[in-house]
Amino acid sequence: ASSKIGFIGLGNMGGPMAANLVKAGHEVRGFDLSQASLDSARADGVTIASSAAEAVKEADAVVTMLPAGAHVLKVWSELASLVPDGTLLIDSSTIDVDSARKAHDIAAARKLAAVDAPVSGGVGGAKAGTLTFMVGGTGEAFARAEPLLNVMGKRVVHCGTAGAGQAAKICNNMILGISMVGVCEAFALGEKLGLSQQALYDVASTSSGQCWSLTSYCPVPGPVPTSPANNDYKPGFAAALMLKDLKLAQAAANAVGANTPLGAEAAQLYSLFDGLGHGIEDFSAIIRLLRGKH
Ligand code: NAD
User: Fold this and answer.
1) Domain(s) of CATH 1.10.1040.10: residues in the chain
2) Which residue of the set 4, 102, 169, 244 is catalytic?
3) What is the pTM of this model?
4) Which residue of 104, 160, 169, 284 is surrounded by the most CB atoms within 10 Å?
5) Is 169 a catalytic residue?
6) Rounded to 5°, angle at Cα 174 from 172 and 177
7) Which residues are in the 6-phosphogluconate dehydrogenase NADP-binding domain (predicted)?
């Protein structure tokens, strides 16, 4: 059935996600602070509202896709008092677990159903409608969100109660950051030992060193033709976004007293790399830092 959807945050991810909802026959009213985002969303068939309040006032569901926790709490606080009773709130931004739980509290105070539903798959996945959604919230809220999320993604996983989606996202991306650094260190060491990159790839990709950072996203050009290393490290997944997610993982680890020494080290390395001006490159470009040539 066609729904009325308010969509706040029409940037690199939110724009194409909203476009997929339009294509599926939903009536989408969108709002963003940036004129460029509004213009491209309008071209994709999104009805542009003059404010967030205007976008959500008759909505069956609202999706937010914003930079960070502070933006989400500000927007949800404002819209919670404006949406009709029974509206479902979906936040797909990547934010800290603490803010995600506060957002659920805002919704609960108005008896609105809510889910945290961050994504993996990047801008390519957002455009193709192949994102993975990691969802936190009650079973009832999940059941209502699932059909809409299926329009924007190909996998929707109910991870648990409030905040569980964000928890799954930062744990996954902590594995990714650590494993990428590990793969880059191995290539940098192999080079100094006179080992060819292809030989290391052929062995590790079929041995116990096998992982996504190696076989889908190989940080040296050649072995995996589709990896950003073959395209001068254009993202892909920007190093600055990896740093953001590693910092969220560290904040969460500190809050609950979890021991994550390699996550902390990966955050330090990406912070150094970003500080040297490489934040806009793909995160696999960190091999340059580890080679000591950047
Ligand atoms: P983006 O900066 O392109 O888009 C964010 C949009 O939010 C911007 O257009 C901005 O103008 C808008 N915005 C900010 N405050 C607003 C407000 N108060 N009201 C209305 N609009 C507002 O960022 P993005 O790449 O689309 O990422 C969005 C979220 O998705 C982030 O949390 C990011 O970490 C996460 N994410 C991004 C990727 C990726 O590859 N880009 C992948 C997975 C998750």
Assistant:
1) 167-291
2) 169
3) 0.95
4) 169
5) yes
6) 115
7) 4-160
Ligand 1 closest atom vs CA 118: 44
Range list for CATH 3.40.50.720 in the chain: 4-161
Q: How confident is the prediction along the chain (294 residues), in pLDDT tens digits per residue?
A: 799 999 999 999 999 999 999 999 999 999 999 999 999 999 999 999 999 999 999 999 999 999 999 999 999 999 999 999 999 999 999 999 999 999 999 999 999 999 999 999 989 999 999 999 999 999 999 999 999 999 999 999 999 999 999 999 999 999 999 999 999 999 999 999 999 999 999 999 999 999 999 999 999 999 999 999 999 999 989 999 999 999 999 999 999 999 999 999 999 999 999 999 999 999 999 999 999 977
Print the SS3 string covering the chain. Answer: CCCEEEEECCCCCHHHHHHHHHHCCCEEEEECCCHHHHHHHHHCCCEECCCHHHHHCCCCEEEECCCCHHHHHHHHHHHHCCCCCCCEEEECCCCCHHHHHHHHHHHHHCCCEEEECCEECHHHHHHHCCEEEEEECCHHHHHHHHHHHHHHEEEEEEEECCCHHHHHHHHHHHHHHHHHHHHHHHHHHHHHCCCCHHHHHHHHCCCCCCCHHHHCCCCCCCCCCCCHHHHCCCCCCEHHHHHHHHHHHHHHHHHHCCCCHHHHHHHHHHHHHHHHHHCCCEHHHHHHHHHCCC
In terms of DSSP bridges, do strands 119-120 and 113-116 run parallel, antiparallel, or are they unpaired?
unpaired
Q: Domain 167-291 class?
A: mainly alpha
4-161 CATH fold: Rossmann fold (3.40.50)
Place of tokens 């205007």: 54
CA of 140 to the centre of ligand 1 (A): 27
Question: Which amino acid residue places its CA nearest to atom 33 of ligand 1?
Answer: 94
